[in-house]
Amino acid sequence: MFGRLLAPRNIPGYITGHTSGEAMSDTAQKRALRNYRSRLMKRGVARFEVLGLDTDRDLIRSVARRLAEDGADSAQIRAAIGRTISGEPPKRGGILEALRRSPLVGADLEFKRSKETGRKVDL
């Protein structure tokens, strides 16, 4: 008796022909979403959600876009954000380190100025 009461045709909302509990297992939309996510993974990009102020939406999107490009700017952005968030004071000697990395190191440039008195100005 109980078997007849629980038969699928006695369940409200039952649609004939569905053998599983899901309505449609592989719709075009689900397939497209799965393909899109796999393409993102191949590029090394992850999709995630963040919470923030509505006014910061464009800023967060632009930062995320620049970071995803993984160019020279992205390393600088990561470093700047990392320093800001860590709360550590900036380390000293950064300008000197940058000058030492310069391609002009060892170029034997001379920085001598001429010692002219200048021009005469009639005021």
Describe the protein:
There is one protein chain. By secondary structure, the protein is an all-alpha fold. It has a domain at 51-87. It has helices spanning 2-5, 28-43, 57-69, 72-86, 94-100. Helix 3 packs across helix 4. The protein starts with a helix and ends in a 23-residue tail after the last helix. The relative contact order is 0.04.
Helix/strand/pairing class, anyone? mainly alpha
Count of individual helical segments? 5
How far apart, in Å, are the first and last alpha carbons? 117 Å
Q: What sequence of helices (H) and strands (E) makes up the elements?
A: HHHHH
Task: Find the count of extended strands (DSSP E, 2+ residues).
Answer: 0
Helix content: 40-55%
Strand proportion: under 5%
Mean pLDDT level: 80
Cα-atom radius of gyration: 32 Å
Low-confidence stretches: none
